[in-house]
């Protein structure tokens, strides 16, 4: 891929600014963990696995600068940093998964010299990033088998290289099918209000020469009713134990439309997106973001000043609408609850 979503370089965290794509390819270099937290909150980096990597790197960055005489003081400061990271965005479980993994690593090393704990936390964050890339490639390999030759695939939001350490989950499936020589095309929902589909999915697919057609969100039903969509593939921010899936707002509508038209609806996500502590989707916290994201488009006011607005950033697609959930360890169908246990243990 011709861009890096996020990387650790020379004691700093580098990331591409996703709020400025596709107009400008700007990279930020952060040496202060509070700026990494702001970047997650303000969607300079976004997408469930990518914000997990960012949180891990942010904590590792903060750890490098902790000034402590005792292990107790070091861990108190480290956990404060973890706490700050955990308050950036609530829905994607990958963020919390990555924070827990960094905490676990630190606790395993609690009797080591502080300098070596700092070094190991940095290595762990880099490892999370590298593993995510491999995970996405495995998701792609499994998922590509579900994509027929000649398929037109509808996707929503951006579950691509930009939303992960690279390659993507839903777009990983699409990339793998394309690289396997299948003649496929993508329909990208624009994904109001943040326009991740219009700005990011089209940008990265066009860079890879994968045929993509942009549609506005309200056009999906039209193209399904005309028989122009073969299947849908989307990502996920958190998947409950019964398979109910939180993903970008509008995903639920696509899934219901797909069922109406007898079109398979696939979710692609790493095992770290499974949250088996949540029995069903009603337990998943849904982020509500600033109303100006709805009343303005790229800074231009499009609604009357003072209008009532709601802006949930995610919705829940009930498991019954999902044909299969594609993970790096294999594909779950039907009885998700049972299959998740095996996939999580693999
Ligand atoms: O608000 P965002 O852009 O972080 O939401 C992203 C999504 O909903 C993605 O579909 C999801 O995180 C999967 S990314 C591989």
Walk me through the structure.
The protein has two domains: 131 residues, Up-down Bundle (Four Helix Bundle (Hemerythrin (Met), subunit A)), CATH 1.20.120.420; 207 residues, Translation initiation factor eif-2b, domain 2 (Rossmann fold, 3-Layer(aba) Sandwich), CATH 3.40.50.10470. Helices cover 41% and strands 17% of the residues. The two termini are 29 Å apart. The model has no long low-confidence stretch (mean pLDDT 97). A hairpin with a 2-residue loop joins strand 15 and strand 16. The site of 5-S-methyl-1-O-phosphono-5-thio-D-ribulose (MRU) has 18 residues, from helix 2 and strand 9.
Write a brief caption for the model.
With 346 residues, the protein is an alpha/beta fold. It folds into two domains: 6-136, Four Helix Bundle (Hemerythrin (Met), subunit A) (Up-down Bundle), CATH 1.20.120; 139-345, Rossmann fold.
Q: Provide a count of the helices.
A: 11
Classified by CATH, the class of the largest domain is: Alpha Beta
Uncertain spans, ≥5 residues at pLDDT below 50? none
Q: Structural class of the helices, strands and pairings?
A: alpha/beta
With strands numbered from the N-terminus, the spatial order across the biggest sheet is 6-5-4-7-10-15-16
Oligomer: single chain
What CATH architecture label of the largest domain applies? 3-Layer(aba) Sandwich
Write the layout of secondary structure elements.
Blueprint: E1 6-9, E2 12-16, E3 27-30, H1 33-41, H2 48-64, H3 71-86, H4 93-108, H5 114-144, E4 152-155, H6 170-179, E5 185-189, H7 196-207, E6 212-215, H8 220-225, E7 231-234, E8 238-240, E9 245-248, H9 251-260, E10 265-268, E11 274-275, H10 292-295, E12 296-297, E13 300-301, E14 314-317, E15 324-327, E16 330-332, H11 336-345
Parallel strand pairs: 4-5, 4-7, 5-6, 7-10, 8-11, 10-15
Antiparallel strand pairs: 1-2, 2-3, 8-9, 9-14, 12-13, 15-16
Helix pairs in contact: 1-2, 2-3, 2-4, 2-5, 3-4, 4-5, 5-6
